[in-house]
Amino acid sequence: MKIEGTYRLVVARDVVWRALMNPKILARALPGCEKFETNPDGSYSAQMKVGVAAIKGTYQARVEILDVVPQEHFRMKVEGKGTGGFLRGEGTLALTEESGATQIAYAGDAQVGGVVASVGQRLMLAAARQIINQFFEAFRNQLPPG
Q1: Where are the domains of the chain?
Q2: Given a cut of 70, is residue 114 above it in pLDDT?
Q3: What CATH superfamily classification does 2-140 receive?
Q4: Do 4 and 129 touch, CB atoms closer than 8 A?
């Protein structure tokens, strides 16, 4: 499943970048996040409750931030499993600034398996878009006004 899009924030790029690198802000912004902790190797452990259609479950995930170019972009690698199946994915976030606003472009690819995969590609894509939109709205609400 491939997903991509953009999100615009009327906040300076350095402020957005610092927030994206802050595990406490990410934990508050991720829908269903119950835990988001830094591991000794610099990766993160997350626990989330997520539902797609009638399939709801708790998932444990490992998140790595790679290929970091401060205030410009990074690559994220996620592996998770839980009661409804598993997820493996990788994506990039790129930040550009124009007139005091920050444009975040994201693109990624994910593979899902188990019971959650039975809901179908179209429904899975709609759920992923909804989760991404919920994340960005919650993330925006934690930033200082621009």
Answers
A1: 2-140
A2: yes
A3: START domain (3.30.530.20)
A4: no
